[in-house]
Amino acid sequence: MNKRMQAFQSKNLPRLEKKIAEFLNGLSAERTLKDAMTYSVAIGGKRIRPLIIMALCSFYNRPINDDVLAVAGSLELLHTYSLIHDDLPEMDNDDLRRGKATNHKVFGQAEAVLAGDGLLTLAFDWITRTGLDSKSKVDLITALAKAAGPEGMVSGQVADIEGEHKTLELEQLKKVHELKTGALLKYACQAGGILSKTEKKEFDLLVDFGATFGLAFQIYDDILDVVSTTKEMGKAVHKDKGENKNTYPVILGLDGAYQSLSQAVEDAREVLVRLNADDSVLADFLEYFERKDS
Fold first, then answer.
1. Structural domain count, the chain
2. What are phi and psi of 290, to 5 degrees?
3. What is the per-residue pLDDT across 105-140, written as a single tens digit (0 to 9) for each?
4. What's the rounded Cα separation, in Å, for the pair 294 and 291?
5. pTM, two decimal places
6. In a domain? residue 282
7. How far apart, in whole angstroms, are the C-alpha atoms of residue 105 and residue 208?
């Protein structure tokens, strides 16, 4: 992480964390539900999705005020819901997330399902509570619903599960990941564009950046499952091969996966050039994809 990104995170991440904590603490909800929701949000994470929203606002000189923090925080709530449900025995059956016991291991399966349900619905509720104009609220809610729902992440998750029983072609795998992982990262760019009221041409480029960044993100995650450790990742690794999952290293080999990653990163960088953002904090997100060899 370079100094510019460090400075950006140091300035904005504490504000985001405080905003999320205050919002969750202020809820009128059953104590166990509130504790379960707060547990999975509070154990941390890279916060890449909300950071992208804030970075875009910064790039377009849109003040990162309480409304922006709420929209960024709402995306993190929704992302956390997806992780809670993804970890369940019926899904990936994981015991570890972000270096801590998964939600269902602490609170039980029923409570974990409901904690995820609570965070999912709360994400949309939080957007409605902002002081944004009505059009911005509707645009954000519409885009988030599409990204998270049956035309986005949920379909991607189903395709990923069903793909365990067959061998996918590379283009099929890309489509799965475009929905499962890319949809929320693309939404982060859409949200930044909506909040910054960008023109359509720029907005479309932001969507392109989100799509290419999302592809790189998933390829890198597949690679890390091969070359990283449980301690480094904060979750179980080397699971994909054992569960017959379709991944980039499985289909292309590790070297081929790294080549695909390099191409996706280069494509994302080219979009930033077209946005005149190749020397901004947005470009610093591409440094996340550091090569790690087994």
1. 1
2. -80, 135
3. 999 999 999 999 999 999 999 999 999 999 999 999
4. 10
5. 0.93
6. yes
7. 38
